[in-house]
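Supplementary Methods, section 5.1.

A reviewer requested that the exact input to the structure prediction be made available. We therefore reproduce it here, unchanged from the version used in the analyses.
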Amino acid sequence: MPAAALLRQRSRTVILAVTVPLALAALLADDVRVRRQLDAARRDPLTGLPGRDVLTDRIERLSRTYRAQLHVLVADADGLKSVNDTLGHAAGDILVATIGHRLGAWATARSGMAARLGGDEFGAALLLPPTATAREITGLRDILEQPVDIAGHLLRPAVSIGVARAVDLPDAASASRLLRGADMAMYRVKTREKPAGYTATRQDAYTPTVHGRRPGRPGTHLPVG
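The structure derived from this sequence is encoded token-by-token as follows.
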């Protein structure tokens, strides 16, 4: 092969060898960007926490391998409507954001995750020894109920927490069933039917819904149409 032709072939090879990695790098960078955009879209803009669907997915994955340690929590901030009515919705947003940040930090420190389920309600999934449940939930409530300073008004939030442990429920219990159990346990604590730190029983997790909602939620009193 003539020297000039050999040189042109080597030049094309060098260009190709440089271009392919650059194209792959650009493709990977674009994939990372899209993933970040999707992740941001799935997060609550007020608290920065993911939503119910992300939490449900995490619970399902943990339950397959770590069922004996899996704890699912539902926490509800009591009195948010009163804050909105007296100090305005901006103050209520600050309160919700603060509780969300505190719960998120607490869960992350224990290699778990927290999510905003909607309104003033939050969920979390993490792995704990069953013997540590009461101590951890007591500590979490103390953290969440620390005073919040909003424009010179010192608010002391009250938070009800319900817990469902996968080990206490049938092996077939799904993520939605665990969340329902934790939600029912939270409601029993909120109404003072059960003490703080109460963990869900099988009956709690399998309580029939009313119009697709846990008994006691707004809308459950509506007649069936």
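The chain has a mean pLDDT of 83. These observations are discussed further in the main text.
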